[in-house]
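The material for today's practical consists of a large collection of protein records. Backbone structure tokens are a discrete shorthand for how the chain folds in space. An example says more than a description, so a record of this kind follows:
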Amino acid sequence: MKPIRIYVDTSIIGGKFDSEFKKASESFFEQVQENKFHLVISSLVQEEIVAAPEHVKKFLDELKPNATIVEVSEEAIKLREAYIKANILSKKSSNDALHVALATVNNCPIIVSWNFKHIVHYEKIALYNTVNILEGYQQIAIYSPLEVIKYE
């Protein structure tokens, strides 16, 4: 079975080292190693990781060889602006909107995040998908790792 393409935002990379998210993050990345998921990581994640501790940067570097790296495109920026215009997020949180846009324009069926304020929130998910449909894109599933890992 072909692995599911999953866009991961910056919170997922750092979540592996956060006591609150560590266990689920480790299970998620184990399942990535088992080829259940194929990671899609953007250049935006790489930019945001620059300020992170060295061990987080090292972990991202370990993930990159087996991931698809996508660049910020005009198409993604245009979709981000549509999210902001729809008042899903403010310009202050534009990078969070850009993560959703990057996942959408790169045909990832799922985005995984630990960002419950701006991304993984039932009201926001419905709004992102409304804009996606209006802009001619597919809907996207937005989950935390807890909702995508397979439990035995």
